[in-house]
Amino acid sequence: MFKNLLFDWSGTLCDDLALTLEATNYVLAQYDRPALTREQFRDEFQLPYPDYYARKTPEARLVDLEKYYRHAFDHAVTQVAIIPHAKAFLEFCRSRGIRCFILTSMDPRAFDEQARFLGLKDYFEHIHSGVRNKEEYIYTLLRQHNLNPADTAFIGDMQHDINAAHCAGIIGIGVLTGYNNAAQLSVSNPDLTVPHLGALQSFMERSGTAPTATPVADTIHINSLEINCRIGVPEEERAEPQRLVANVSLTPAATFDSMGEELERTINYDALARHLISLAQEQPTVLLETLCHRLATACVQEFGATTATVELHKFILPFTSSVSVRCTVSTGQENKI
């Protein structure tokens, strides 16, 4: 059933409830709010966290709240731990070729420190941390990694995780090892609720839902490449350069384990990134689709990628975060936009 699994971090894989409570109480103290007990915190805390703090400390600026929170995290004496069954479940996913991703609101630096400390970072194909609103961001994650919603589930311990899954049309699996209890999680109608990840593994093994997917090919990702170029349908729009953002995924001809530290056997992503910027700036372009195809073709024809996917974001329409197009070009295969 599941070829791709998205994981929340706190309360799903990492037990950081005591640390989060310590940091939260430090933030509240800066605004003369009383400290919370563990039970009070679990009863009232919700994501997205900016909404939670807007209710608790409406006079506070988000930038200050995040500064106090990071300070508390950096100076906390409380340690984090792996939630029981989490590592065994990640090993299970690895053995089945299931693609695993992190989607968390955790500060990127704090996440990196915790994941390395717990020895879990290498289980994930890609990390998406520092996400304030998962319901809005999850679409970007699915597009960036070309995940089929029908083959994908999001595992989390809070209502916001389940809501985000349902927003994207994927399965939402609630796990009762973290911040929300069963009654709280039930409000978001999870497709499946399990007491812990060991139970989810047993369910997948017993019901035959653990896939035997072909392991994902080794890939190189260039994320959020900034490109300033002249593009647009009206001539006046092309008169001045405008900002685009490109996400590029590349499959090299050689596998990573066969490269043997030889640069010529991989894709020089520094040279490629500079070339894509230069290529976009060579001449004005009318259609975003045309530029997208041109860049993807260059990845294959000039840099030896067997498959290249380029996603371009343009920031021009009001009331949207961006407009995007995606193109995949492969050697010996039909090109698609």
Key attributes of the depicted protein:
337 residues; alpha/beta; Rossmann fold; GTP Cyclohydrolase I, domain 2; 3 domains; 12 strands; 19% strand; disordered C terminus
> Hey, roughly how much beta strand do the residues contain?
15-25%
Kindly give the count of domains: 3
The coarse silhouette is globular
Biggest sheet: strand arrangement = 5-4-1-6-7-8
Q: How much helicity do the residues have?
A: 25-40%
Judged by helices, strands and strand pairing, the structural class is: alpha/beta
Indicate the low-confidence ranges by residue numbers: 210-216, 333-337
- What is the H/E string? EEHHHHEHEHEHEHEHEHEEHHEE
First-last Cα distance: 28 Å
Report the total helices.
12
Integer-rounded radius of gyration? 22 Å
Mean pLDDT: 87
CATH class of the largest domain: Alpha Beta
Fourth CATH level, the homologous superfamily of the largest domain: HAD superfamily/HAD-like
Q: What's the main sheet like?
A: 6 strands, parallel
Description:
The protein is of the alpha/beta class. The protein has 3 domains: 4-9 and 83-207, Rossmann fold (3-Layer(aba) Sandwich); 17-75; 220-330, GTP cyclohydrolase I, C-terminal domain/NADPH-dependent 7-cyano-7-deazaguanine reductase, N-terminal domain (GTP Cyclohydrolase I, domain 2, 2-Layer Sandwich). 38% of the residues lie in helices and 19% in strands. It contains 12 helices and 12 strands. The strands form 3 sheets. A 6-stranded parallel beta sheet has the order 5-4-1-6-7-8, sandwiched between helices. The two termini are 28 Å apart.
